[in-house]
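Data card: per-record layout.
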Amino acid sequence: MSEARSWWQRLRQRFTPAPTDQPEGTDPSADRQSQAEQSLRALLDDPQIPQAVRSSLADDFSRLESLLGKLERDELHLAVFGRVSVGKSALANALLGEPAFAVSVLHGTTREATPRAWREVAGNGVHLIDTPGIDELDGEARERLAMEVASISDLVIFVVDADMTTREHDALVELARTNRPLLLALNKADRYSESETERLLERLREHAQGLVQAENVVAVSALPPALRRLSQGTDGREREELLTQTPDIAALQARLLDVLGREGRTLSALNASLFAGRLSDAVGKRIVVARRELAAKVIRQYCIAKSLAVALNPIPVADLLAAGALDAALVMHLARVYGLPLTQREAGGLIATICAQLVALMGAIWGVHLVASALKGLSAGMSTVLTATAQGALAWYATLIVGQAADRYLAAGKSWGELGAKRVVSDIVESLDRDSILREARSEILKRLRTSESSA
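The structure for this 456-residue chain is written out next.
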C-alpha cells in the first residue's frame, strides 16, 4: 500500500510541477487534461478493438465515455462515502447549503448516485455525489454501487460518526487501493466534548495512517440538533423554543477548497487516465482470450484437415509432404490471428525449432507415417482403414503440439519467454493426454471416412 501511495504522490508531483518551472501564463494541468482527453478518445475510437470485446466491456466503455465528457466539461466529482446513518446525506446537504439529498432516520434512504452541482473551484465545476450506505444487510447492490462511484470520483469524503469499525477500516483500505485522494470526516462531533473530539480524531488518524494524510482528518457537525431554550412570555408562562443550529463544516470546506484549488484539474485528469489504463488492460486481456479461443479453433481445424489428408492420401510419401505443408499453413494462420504475420520461411523456421525439441517423439511419429505410407502402396489401398486411422491420429497429435507451441510463441509476441522453446514444448507435451487425444482423433477420422464412403 505504501508503494502505491508513493507512486501516486510521484505521479501527482510530475503532473503538477512547481510554478517556477513553467513559462508565465501557461497551465500545466490544462496540458495534462488535454493529454488525458486525447488518450480516452483514442481508446474509445480504437479500430483494433474487436466488437465482441467492446460488447463484453460495454459498461466500462460507457463509463469511459462519461469520464471523457466530465473532462471536456471541466467537472470534478466528490463522492460522500460511508456506512448507513453516519450522516453522509446530511453532510452533502450542508456543503450544498440546501436539502438536495434525502435525509431519514430509516436505513438505506440513498438508493442511487446522482451528482449535484456544488460550486466552481479554480475553473472547475465541482459536483457532489451521495452514495448508498456500505453496510445494508440486504443492500449488496447498493454497496457495490457505492464502491464503484467512489472509485471513479476525483476525491472521496469518507464519513464516520465515531471510532472506526473494522468494516469501515476495510472499506477505507479498499478505497485507498484506487489511488483516490481521501478525506476522513468525523461527523456528529457535536455529541462529544472538545477533548473527546480531539481523542477521536487522533484515533482516526492512527487507523488511517498511510491511507489518509493527517491534515485531511477533520471533525464536522453536518446536522446538529436544535437547541431547546425556555423563555417567559408577557403572560408569565414559560415557553420552549427550538433554535436551529448552523452546520459546522468549516474545517472540511477549507481542506476541500485547498486540495481542489491546488490540484483539482490534475486529479480529474489522473482519475480518468487511471480508469482508462485499467480498461486498456482489461481490453488487452479480453483480446488475448478471444485470440486464444480463435487459435484453439484454428488448431483443431488443422488437426482434422491434416489427419484426413494423411489418412486419405493413397500416394506413398505424398501424404507426408501434404502434412508438412499444412503445418506451415497452420503456423501462418495463427500468426494472422495474433496480428503478427509470418512469411513461409519464418513459419518453417518456427516449425523446425518446435520439432527440434521433439526429436524422439517426432522420429517415432514420422516412422509410423513412413511404414503406414508404405502399407498403403503395398496393399493397393486394402489396408487404408487399418493404417489410415492410426497414421491420421498421430498426425493430429503432432499438429496439436506444433499448433499449441506456435500459439504460445505468438501470444508472447514472437517470443518463447524466459524459459525457452524446450521448456514450452515440454510443458505442452506433459499437459496433453495422448491416449485421449488419439482416441478422439481416430473417432473423428472414422466418422469422416464413413461419411465420405456413404456420400460416394
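Known properties of this structure: Confidence is low (pLDDT under 50) at residues 1-22, 104-111, 364-383. The chain has two domains: 2-15+28-282, 313-455.

See the next section for split statistics.
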